[in-house]
Amino acid sequence: QNVQWLMHLNAADKGRDISAERVIPDGTGGIRTERIIVQVKHWQSKSVGVPEISTNLAQVEHWKPPLIHSLIIATSGRFTPDGVDWIEKHNQKGTLPFIEPWPDSHLERLLSAHPGLVPAHGLR
């Protein structure tokens, strides 16, 4: 909810393209929300590596408050093995924001679960 598109294509976005609140049922019939930031990398010929991931994580500090629970890095390509290892080590520390890597395969699964998004937004 409260999704905000923060920057336009090819603009300097300082580490965030989308800000939103993730709604999470709490098991007691209530809900809680967590703020997320999405950084999009439309890279098909280059993989997202440690330099890009660490830079995006550092940039998140400029967008507090409110607290940011998750940084989603979505790419039309892939993540380097070192990048995946770096994310796993960061997340194991338990410090916020949690980093969620969304490679092309994850985006394809999301789109297959919501096929109406493809024609509605002119996606390929």
Please give a quick description of this structure.
The protein has about 120 residues and is an alpha/beta fold. The chain has helices spanning about 50-60, 80-90, 105-115, 115-120, and strands spanning about 5, 20-25, 30-40, 70-75, 100.
Note down, in words, how this protein is organized.
With 124 residues, this protein is an alpha/beta fold. The protein has four helices and five strands; from the N terminus they run βββαβαβαα. The chain has helices at residues 50-60, 81-92, 104-113, 117-120; strands spanning 4-5, 18-25, 31-41, 70-75, 98-102. Strand 4, helix 2 (81-92) and strand 5 (98-102) form a beta-alpha-beta unit.
Structural key phrases:
124 residues, 5 strands, 26% strand
As residue ranges, the low-confidence spans are: none
> Major beta sheet, specifics?
5 strands, mixed
Q: Could you say which overall geometry the principal axes of the C-alpha atoms support? A: globular
Report the strand count: 5
* N-end to C-end Cα span: 25 Å
Radius of gyration: 15 Å
Kindly report the spatial arrangement of strands forming the biggest sheet.
Answer: 1-2-3-4-5
How large is the share of residues in beta strands? 25-35%
Backbone structural class: alpha/beta
Mean pLDDT: 89
Tally of alpha and pi helices: 4
Helix proportion of residues, in percent?
A: 25-40%
The run of helices and strands is: EEEHEHEHH
